[in-house]
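hey so i finally got around to running the thing on that chain from the lab meeting. sorry it took forever, my laptop kept dying and i had to restart like 3 times. anyway pasting the input first so we r on the same page abt which one it is
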Amino acid sequence: MRLILFVSAWFLCLGAAQASASTPAPSTTTRLDHILLWGRGIDQVTAVMAVKLGFQVRPGRDPGGVANRYIRFSDSSFIELLGITRANPTFDPGMKEDQQALKGGPGSRSFGFRTSSLDDIHRSLQALHYAVTPFFSGPDSSKPGWRLFAFDHAPLSSNTFFIDYATDYAPDQFDPSRADDYRVTREHPNGARELTSIWLLSGDAEADRHQLEKMGFGHAVPVNLPAVGAKGFCVPVGPTALLALQPDGAGLARQIMASGGPRILGVSFAVSDLGRAQRWVERGYERKLATYRGLSGQSILAPTQEDLGLAIEFHAMQPGKAPCPAASR
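ok and heres what got predicted. didnt touch it at all, straight out
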């Protein structure tokens, strides 16, 4: 959510972690929650996501010249869209850092993990001598809806944070009195249902894998993504996957590293009907797309790099499938 960006630059820097007293242990209550995606403007990124890609985009706020909007999914994950709406907007240090790294262009370099074990993880990471931040909560002090913490220094190549939500926080949680609203805001013309993976790009995938293992996310599986010219590791995070990648020959990964450095290379979504998603993207971009066998089965890659600064993959839903390839063997 956009208010996350209003704390400080270091507020958006942490490693994906799990917790016990001294060595964090993976928890089934933790999953990937959302990414922060900057567009060239809020209307530009909204139009791309809705018209070209077939997502339903929900309203947000614009308190300081940086507006946000949301794309929510039935598994409770979401994308937060960000865009500058006026000259001389009010940037917090985290926003300024993002804009400097992205050179004012589109893209994403911050993402969050959702967990119900926030306090345990915080204590465990302190025991491992990570400089974790205090807890922050919002959207206001009268009725906090979310609580999170980060690191003073990012252990991973992209910024990340841990977040949890109050059970009665209606904007992001299920509210029985608004069940129909909850359902329809998570239905998308392209059939997207779940955020299944976030792809981190750096020059050293092994360094990210090592940090993830140190903080409790083990069981990494070596992977190759020829569709974007990358290789690295798939790390399971509850029902989702975090890919730690680096360029491998010519391709999109090398192009992005050369032009902007480490960031989120892409995201992957499970769809109820891959053919429908493919037809929607082909109409939006007025070109034919080839399917390929990705880490999550039959997939397509939307040509979004110029518009969004990252790749978006759609794949057919596979209920019960493990988040990383080897985990299903």
